Amino acid sequence: MSQGVIQQAPLEVTQLASSAPKPSLSLAALIQQILVEIHEAQAAQTQASEEINDQMPAINKNLTYCNARLERAEHSIPDLEDKLNHPDTTLAQYKEPRRDGR
């Protein structure tokens, strides 16, 4: 009886192997596909880096402008504090003139 079980095992394994789904790509084709995807990802990364580098001069110009405005604002703080703490100060004195000159 044990011989019958031993003889049937290879047949079952063969049946399982033959019914298993077959890969649609060979290993070489799969590796090639992965390499193509890696190459495409590297190209996209290079393009993104170039776009960022192209924008850097404008970004630096904006940062320089913002830093200059911040520095001017910081220098005006003590003068504004003095004016606000002065007993004769009214808000009307510092109101910006309207476009019509009033």
Summarize the entry for a quick read.
The protein is mostly helical.
As a whole number of angstroms, the C-alpha radius of gyration is: 39 Å
Backbone shape: rod-shaped
Q: Name the helicity range.
A: over 70%
* SSE order, one letter for each helix or strand: HH
* Count of β-strands: 0
Mean pLDDT figure: 78
Low-pLDDT parts are none
Characterize the main sheet. none
Number of helices: 2
Query: Which band does the percent of strand residues land in?
Result: under 5%
Quickly give the structural class.
Answer: mainly alpha
Distance between the termini: 114 Å
Can you give a write-up of this model?
Residues 75-102 are annotated as: Disordered. Residues 75-86 have a biased composition (Basic and acidic residues). With 102 residues, this protein is mainly alpha-helical. Helix content is 75%, strand content 0%. It is built from 2 helices and no strands. The radius of gyration is 39 Å and the shape is rod-shaped. The chain starts with a helix and ends in a 17-residue tail after the last helix. The mean pLDDT is 78.
